[in-house]
Input
Amino acid sequence: MENTFFTSDDAVVTLKTEADKEKVLEFIAKDEWYTPYIWECFAKEIANAPLFFEQYKEQFETELPNGLKCNVPALDNSNEELMETAKDTGLMLGFPANGGIVVKPTRYTAFTSICQRAGISGSTISNMDEKPLISVLPTMEKAQWLSRGFSLHKADCKILYRDGKVSSMLSKEYEILPANETIPRFERKLREDHPDLTFSSGMFSHEYLVLDYMLNDDIMEDSFISMLSEYGVSAKTVKAGVRFSTSDVGNSCVTAAPFYDLDGARIRLGKPICLSHDKGHSIEQFIKMLNGLAMVFKENEDLVEKLGNTQIKHSGGCFLHIIDKNRSLRSGSEDLADELDAEFPAGCTAIDVFLALNKIVEVRNSRKELNPTQLINLTETIAKLLLINYTDYDHVWTDED
Output
């Protein structure tokens, strides 16, 4: 397909300027959403055989689940794009659109939701790689299973067609909240209380859109840096910001998450403002929820203050016991406990441990740049640690632990 936005299905676009952000919103505005009945849909195999791709470059014949045959419009995907689909999912999705039937290649982001609409789950349908004790179900049979599953469901669904492929096949309960419509209103709302708001940076993939904004609010920032200094945390610069994130493939809510940059190190704070894509939810609801953003900052700052008042005797030990309880944080944490012990040999406060936990993001990113999915999952996991009782983990770490 000519002029695709992404270089590959797993590509990540980094956004550095306002112009970059606007290009993404213009791209999202081109999304095509279709709402067929699930029973009208069917899956087709696309074999990992480039010699046969040319048959899809012109109108081609396909067999419907009821045995009837019909011609469907040609695909304008490149051979490279079709090969990517053949290797990732091996599936194309057929559905009614524009007064006829279309058959479109799928990308990896659609596979889980396709299985959900068919009511099929488990290793047999999801396994893509040959394993010692589990063989791979042939793709043609997967397509037949999925099509049969579709045929049993009378509800409608919502199919996202983006950048030449099907990105998701979501339920009728999924409420579409387009980012290109949400973000301008989000920005206007934030500027009511923070007139100097600026876009900072972002990332965009087929799974997530992440945008970071700086509030440029001297009063908030001076207050926070003053509070940190009371607990022995020195920072030359403190900047307040909000991270907007959303997913159009069913991975997450529409979210506004508060953060502070301490000398350039980003610290995500506690519980964000979230609106799910559940049926009946609207952009208007999300904008109204932003009225509570100041309170979210205040509540999180209160939690930071609580951590500042919590004395920790065993700096590295407390850190390692928290990591042991949250195994997904192990990578990137290897040297941080020793750094804590070296900096605070006589103990520290819980806020020092929390700040050390946030360094895991920086460490992982320095090894290999995190994609939006990894960044969201990692920062959300660490942000929740603002809520735990650090004294429960304040023990010496031994080799037996």
About this structure: The mean pLDDT is 94. Residues 350-367 form the longest helix (18 residues). The two ends are 54 Å apart (CA to CA). Residues 1-30+178-302 form one domain.
